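[Automated response] Your request has been received and processed.

Submitted sequence:
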Amino acid sequence: MTRQGAHSGTKRRADLVDTQPDSGVKRARPNSIMDYMKKPKPQHQARKDQEPSKEAVLSESTSHEQKETSATENDGVSEPQANNQPKNTSSATETEDTPGIQLRLIESIGDIFDAPPNSLIIHACNCEGSWGAGIAAAFKNHYAGAYKVYAAHCKQNGHDLFRKALLIPPQKLDKKKQHFVGCLFTSRSKGKKKDSPSAILQATKPAMEDLLRQVQDWNAEHADGDAVGEVRICKINSGLFAVPWEETKEVMESLDVENHSIKEVKVISREE
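Generated structure:
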């Protein structure tokens, strides 16, 4: 090889090497455009090429929504039902919460037995057929005929009478009074065996409701001359049953009497 040829070959090899001005690192230049095309793309350009197009994203989203809709339809459940959302029951709730006509109590002092004919006189009783003490003894003295009916009723039914009532029409033995007697069975027993105040209060409302139903039935079957007229009651439960009157009063005044003919009751107490 001639010196000139060797020099020329050296120059060509030198042309293949370039020096980066900043780092001083040498790198080989591509011999041709094909070598350049074989070089790996920069990372930022590769990531850009891998990103899906807007059209692809929209297509995938639409396909996903269609699948969800199809699955929901196949389940046969609409979205509100699937979320267990309650139906609008405000109308029914308002109807249930709307108060009717409550029983009215009119308190006064006097003689409960000094009442017009066909009046109903009410007191609380035990279920054992005993009117032996307290105001019950006074009822026994005034209404001997009614007491016999009450005692026989208790003997036949016993403690099953708890929370119920008994309406006793005027008896021949009590013709001077001509009063109805109402018995509210608010305690199963008496004395030390009487029910607790809470149990007595819980029995008062259903017992009074039962008595009002019996009055309604009686008046529907009898003429005005034989129907129940004025209604009187003592401060029930507050004597030997030892329940504060105000607590019983609250229970009584909560009674709904909208569908009953009896809308008010006179509470008669003796002078202290």
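Summary generated for your ticket: The chain has a mean pLDDT of 78. The two ends are 149 Å apart (CA to CA).
If you did not submit this request, please reply to this message.
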